[in-house]
Amino acid sequence: QVQLVESGGGSVQVGGSLRLSCAASGRTFSSYCMGWFRQAPGKEREFVAAISWSGGGTYLLDSVEGRFTISRDNAKNTVDLQMNSLKPEDTAVYYCAAGSGSRWYNFLRSIAGYDYWGQGTQVTVYS
Questions:
Q1: Average pLDDT of 29-43?
Q2: Is residue 27's pLDDT more than 80?
Q3: Do 97 and 45 meet the contact criterion of CB atoms below 8 Å apart?
Q4: pLDDT for residue 85 is more than 80
Q5: Is 8 within 8 Å of 23 (Cβ atoms)?
Q6: DSSP annotation string for the chain
Q7: 88-124 tens-digit pLDDT
Q8: How far apart are CA 3 and CA 116, in angstroms?
Q9: Is 24 left (phi over 0), alpha (psi -120 to 50) or beta?
């Protein structure tokens, strides 16, 4: 069992930056692969970024490539999402998620690849 708590959301002007953090409970955090998803009002939850258990593999949504970076610290049980050059279309509730095994590697860009979810943190980008 893994419990996830996101923090770092807020309101920022276009072009600004935010750093989201997800703190995980449990001693087995390093065995989980992690992801960030987002959901805007009236839209489905979409994949944003993912990172393998070791941090050696990272994956990003095309539209955030070059602007967002995902990282993890297994000693601190945290996974971060650094978001730069924010745009209004980045406005959404951002969720942290944990998954494992072959299912994650096969479905890392889908909610089907994850077993545990945080409660979400709101990000609003205004012009």
A1: 95
A2: no
A3: no
A4: yes
A5: no
A6: ---EEEE--EEEETT--EEEEEEE-STTGGGSEEEEEEE-TTS--EEEEEE-TTS--EEE-GGGTTTEEEEEETTTTEEEEEE-S--GGG-EEEEEEEE-HHHHHHHTTSGGG-SEE---EEEEEE-
A7: 999 999 999 999 888 888 899 999 999 999 999 999 9
A8: 7
A9: beta
